[in-house]
Amino acid sequence: xxxxxxxxxxxxxxxxxxxxxxxxxxxxxxxxxxxxxxxxxxxxxxxxxxxxxxxxxxxxxxxxxxxxxxxxxxxxxxxxxxxxxxxxxxxxxxxxxxxxxxxxxxxxxxxxxxxxxxxxxxxxxxxxxxxxxxxxxxxxxx
Length: 142
What we know:
Layout: H1 17-27, E1 32-34, H2 40-44, E2 50-56, H3 63-76, E3 82-87, H4 94-99, E4 109-114, E5 119-124, H5 130-141
Parallel strand pairs: 1-3, 2-3
Antiparallel strand pairs: 2-4, 4-5
């Protein structure tokens, strides 16, 4: 996951198939997956039913710091919510932006989507912060 090695302590006698499966599921994906034509199928077939999209301009000077904060927030919801980055500059992503009824002037924004029932919510942002992402996710989960 994101060039960070995680090990499951196999010397622990409490490790069973369920715990091993959970460890693999939680660590098989990047903390944040960039949405593009190559990753689209994997995103749609994810075992996680709740997707949080950060729709933003990757060319923005604020992008590196936004991604750092978004990844930090992703750690808090690992195994619960699939964190996705959507670059608003890619023509292939215009349908996603319009699906959430957003205009480019409203970006960056967070969009949360529950796949089974298509329930969704959107939050436009002045700035991406760990606290705002965490609050937004917690409100939706409740």
